[in-house]
Amino acid sequence: MSCTVAISNSPAFSPAPRVPMTSSLLCRSASFSSSSSSCKSSETLTLTKFPSFTSSSSPSSQLKNLRIQKPSPAQISLVRNSAECSTSPILKRKRPARLDIPVVSTNFGNFPATTVAAADFVEAEGDEYSVCCKRGRRGAMEDRYSAFVNLQGDSKQGMFGVFDGHGGAKAAEFAAEHLNKNIMDELARRKDEDVVEALKNGYLKTDSEFLSQEFRGGSCCVTALIRKGNLVVSNAGDCRAVVSRGGIAEALTSDHKPSRKDEKDRIETSGGYVDCSNGVWRIHGSLAVSRGIGDRYLKQWVISEPETKVVELNPELEFLVLASDGLWDKVSNQEVVDTARPLCTGGISKPQPLLASKKLIDLAVSRGSVDDTSVMIIQLQQFC
């Protein structure tokens, strides 16, 4: 291929007949164009002869030709994304291999809808209990609950729980499904003897099973088992159980926090440390609770062994409140009983424990609670 270019001082630019200009003259890669700063062609042409453009050239001189030859394939340089039309080769970057990300199943099996609270706001009630769960402002709902009544066909038996997840909801979900069953299995294996040991082993087994799933996060737990005329309350973490005894609030559990002297001593004895930042005591500057299900990376210090208390049911015990720390951090034990009692007992024709649960959550929120908050009220007179 060749192009013929007319020199500006030749007669070709006089009013005389024009030299025909073919399309081959418009070489897109030629440097004479005003758009030479942006090269759009994938071929670079080389100049084999370049004339001298001087003012001394005679107007009568013959037409001078500048021949532009197409180079051989070996001379062609690929130009990629260059604003300066550089002739040095730029290699195309190889696309990295696609990442193979494993899909982790989050299905824990089928279980009654009343055992899980996964929405922003959940409420449920039965003849024996009412529960309300509200998502806080920190992220997705991580609280869960469980409620099983008529255990073994006995209307005077039931088991309830509130689970406050942290680092995700997986541990709370797992505990809500498996803890009750593991406790009942332990009771059956012991033929109802040593209920405290059965509760302990049920918690430990649930923790071990969850850790084998290789999920992260953990969960605080509080459970209430009602059977054979006894109320058996267990907790691991800072979920709390408070009973109304004739209108007087009585805490049946003690929060497991690193600031508690015996918990702090236990952690430090086992090689860990506890420090305080912004008024909050944490294990290794991370977790603000010292017991619970999960928390594999702090498992040496965050144990799952619960503390358990057995109370005999009697007419003085009116109702039991199980709740996550979203409530207890803002509302005192006695305030909880004082707020709920007019709607749960007394001379009203129909108790409204669900409304009482909602009022308690509203009270916590009005005082600045931003955490997930779950409140369950159990009418103990139904089991006497």
TrEMBL record:
Looking at its record, which EC class is this enzyme? hydrolase
- Domain PPM-type phosphatase stretches: 128-380
What keywords are annotated for this sequence in UniProt? Hydrolase, Magnesium, Manganese, Metal-binding, Protein phosphatase
Pfam families (alphabetical): PP2C (PF00481)
Give the cofactors, semicolon-separated.
Answer: Mg(2+); Mn(2+)
Q: Does the keyword NADP apply?
A: no
CDD domains hit by this protein: PP2Cc
The answer to keyword Nucleotidyltransferase applying to this record is no
The EC designation for this entry is: 3.1.3.16
Belongs to which family?
Answer: Belongs to the PP2C family.
Report the protein name in the record.
Answer: protein-serine/threonine phosphatase
Q: Source species, please?
A: Datura stramonium
Question: Taxonomic lineage of this organism?
Answer: Eukaryota, Viridiplantae, Streptophyta, Embryophyta, Tracheophyta
